[in-house]
C-alpha cells in the first residue's frame, strides 16, 4: 500500500482535519519523490528485529534512534508543542520519522508553494530532505508514536520560514532545479 497524500484546501479549520480539496487532488509517491520525500512501508509490530529497517539505517548512516509518544496525556504542554510542530520550518538535516502507532500529518510545500498533506500511519517511514518547508500535526486521533532517526547526535533545530538564505534551503532548491531543469520561484 502506498502512502496517502493530497493537495490541501485553503481553509483555516482545525489542522487535525484532513483538509481535502474539492475535488480531492491526490499526490502520488512519484510526485513526493520529485520533491525529495522518500517512503517505505515497514512492519511496526517488530521494529526491533526488522531487517529492512536495519538495512535502511545502515545504508543511510542513521546511528541514533529514539521514540516519541505524542498525546495530550503523555506530553507536557501538548497544545504548545503541537503548535510549534505546525509552524512552517526547515531543518539543516533530513527529518526521518517512522510511525509505530497512531497517525498524523506531515505537510510539505510543492514546487508551486502549495501544501501537500501526507498522512502517516503505523508502518510508514518517511524522510523529508534538508531544506524542505514542512510542518507536522496529529490527526483527529490525537495520538502518534514515532521513531526518530538521525545521523550522529540528534539536532532538532527548526528554522521558521522565511529561510531562503539558509544553506540547507539553497541546496534543496538547487537540487530541485537540477532535477527539473527549470528555475523555481522561492517558496
From TrEMBL:
It catalyses: 1,2-dihydroxy-5-(methylsulfanyl)pent-1-en-3-one + O2 = 3-(methylsulfanyl)propanoate + CO + formate + 2 H(+); 1,2-dihydroxy-5-(methylsulfanyl)pent-1-en-3-one + O2 = 4-methylsulfanyl-2-oxobutanoate + formate + 2 H(+). Fe(2+) binds at residues 89, 91, 95, 134. It is found in: Cell membrane; Cytoplasm; Nucleus. Pathway: Amino-acid biosynthesis; L-methionine biosynthesis via salvage pathway; L-methionine from S-methyl-5-thio-alpha-D-ribose 1-phosphate: step 5/6. It is an enzyme of class 1 (oxidoreductase). InterPro entries: ARD, ARD_euk, RmlC-like_jellyroll, RmlC_Cupin_sf. One of its GO terms (molecular function) is nickel cation binding. It comes from the Eukaryota. The keyword Iron applies. Keywords: Amino-acid biosynthesis, Cytoplasm, Dioxygenase, Iron, Metal-binding, Methionine biosynthesis, Nickel, Nucleus, Oxidoreductase. Its cofactor is Fe(2+); Ni(2+). Its EC number is 1.13.11.54, 1.13.11.53. Ni(2+) binds at residues 89, 91, 95, 134. The keyword Hydrolase does not apply. Its main location: membrane. It is a peripheral membrane protein. One of its GO terms (cellular component) is nucleus. Catalyzes 2 different reactions between oxygen and the acireductone 1,2-dihydroxy-3-keto-5-methylthiopentene (DHK-MTPene) depending upon the metal bound in the active site. Fe-containing acireductone dioxygenase (Fe-ARD) produces formate and 2-keto-4-methylthiobutyrate (KMTB), the alpha-ketoacid precursor of methionine in the methionine recycle pathway. Ni-containing acireductone dioxygenase (Ni-ARD) produces methylthiopropionate, carbon monoxide and formate, and does not lie on the methionine recycle pathway. PANTHER family: ACIREDUCTONE DIOXYGENASE (PTHR23418), ACIREDUCTONE DIOXYGENASE 4 (PTHR23418:SF4). Belongs to the acireductone dioxygenase (ARD) family. This is Acireductone dioxygenase. It comes from Cicer arietinum.
Amino acid at each position: 500500500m502506498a502512502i496517502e497524500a493530497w493537495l490541501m484546501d485553503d481553509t483555516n479549520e482545525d489542522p487535525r482535519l484532513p483538509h481535502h480539496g474539492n475535488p480531492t487532488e491526490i499526490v502520488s509517491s512519484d510526485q513526493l519523490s520529485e520533491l525529495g520525500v522518500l517512503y517505505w512501508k515497514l512492519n511496526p509490530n517488530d521494529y526491533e528485529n526488522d531487517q529492512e529497517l536495519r538495512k535502511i539505517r545502515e545504508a543511510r548512516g542513521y546511528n541514533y534512534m529514539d521514540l516519541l509518544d505524542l498525546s495530550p496525556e503523555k506530553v507536557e504542554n501538548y497544545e504548545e508543542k503541537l503548535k510549534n510542530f505546525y509552524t512552517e520550518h526547515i531543518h539543516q538535516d533530513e527529518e526521518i520519522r517512522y510511525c509505530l502507532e497512531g497517525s498524523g500529518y506531515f505537510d510539505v510545500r510543492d514546487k508551486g508553494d502549495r501544501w501537500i498533506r501526507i498522512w502517516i500511519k503505523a508502518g510508514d517511514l518517511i524522510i523529508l530532505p534538508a531544506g524542505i518547508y514542512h510542518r507536522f500535526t496529529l490527526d483527529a486521533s490525537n495520538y502518534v508514536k514515532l521513531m526518530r532517526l538521525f545521523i550522529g547526535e540528534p539536532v532538532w533545530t527548526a528554522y521558521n520560514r522565511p529561510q531562503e538564505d539558509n544553506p540547507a534551503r539553497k541546496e534543496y532548491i538547487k537540487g530541485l532545479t537540477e532535477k527539473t531543469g527549470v528555475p523555481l520561484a522561492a517558496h
